[in-house]
Design goal:
CATH architecture: Up-down Bundle
CATH class: Mainly Alpha
Organism: Noviherbaspirillum aridicola
Order of helices and strands: HHHHHHH
Family: Belongs to the UPF0111 family.
Distance between the termini: 29 Å
Strand content: under 5%
Largest sheet: none
Number of strands: 0
Protein name: Phosphate transport regulator
Oligomer: single chain
CATH topology: Methane Monooxygenase Hydroxylase, Chain G, domain 1
Radius of gyration: 19 Å
Helix content: over 70%
């Protein structure tokens, strides 16, 4: 009787998808920012707005988790998944704000490439989250997770090469410090996407 009176699965998968969509939107704004600095403040504001929308989705998910008696996935997995996805947009917001606060006048090809890899990772996160409501999709999801891992490795290589070039060729210490911070934040975005992939892989092992 008690179980019938409590909420059951809720709309967790819908909320995951909403958040993943926002991650992609935020990453697209970051690529646009890196492509054209003329709209810097507009792009930064757009990323901040998207991040606030994602915070609401995260809060709604956690609130639903507290209210739901029977969840479609392990409660801890739901919590880890939505908070790790939220980390992606938090870092994208950090990157945009850092570029603005540091008054960076031009960006390097390496920073733009890292932003593009952030977008590619976010799109793969979105692609696998959409499939999460059906464990018959487990093979496809695992394949996408492997692609996220490869993209994160690509970002590692880009950052290492960028750091080497920066310390070798950049004569201005202030510019070096600023660009180093941007590189590190953007590379960490791909790390968080890999964290999401690892969580999804664990969910598949537990449920498929």
């Amino acid at each position: 009787m008690f179980g019938r009176l409590m909420p059951t699965e809720g709309k967790f998968f819908e909320l995951f998808s909403q958040h993943a969509d926002l991650c992609v939107k935020g990453a697209k704004e970051m690529v646009a920012l890196m492509t054209n600095f003329d709209d810097l403040e507009t792009r930064v504001h757009a990323i901040e707005t998207i991040e606030k929308q994602a915070d609401k989705v995260t809060y709604e998910t956690l609130d639903l988790l507290h209210k739901t008696f029977i969840t479609p996935l392990d409660r801890d997995d739901i919590h880890k998944l939505i908070t790790s996805m939220d980390d992606i947009l938090d870092l994208l917001e950090d990157a945009g704000q850092t570029i603005s606060l540091y008054d960076i006048k031009a960006i390097t090809p390496e920073a733009k490439r890292l932003a593009e890899l952030c977008l590619a990772c976010a799109e793969k996160v979105q692609a696998t989250v959409v499939l999460l409501n059906n464990m018959d999709n487990s093979r496809e999801m695992l394949g996408i997770c492997e692609e996220i891992d490869r993209l994160e490795s690509d970002a590692d290589h880009v950052m290492r090469a960028a750091m080497s070039k920066l310390f070798r060729d950049e004569p201005d210490v202030r510019t070096l410090i600023k660009l180093k911070a941007i590189y590190e934040i953007l590379e960490t975005v791909t790390d968080r996407c890999e964290d999401v992939a690892n969580i999804i892989e664990a969910i598949i092992v537990e449920n498929a």
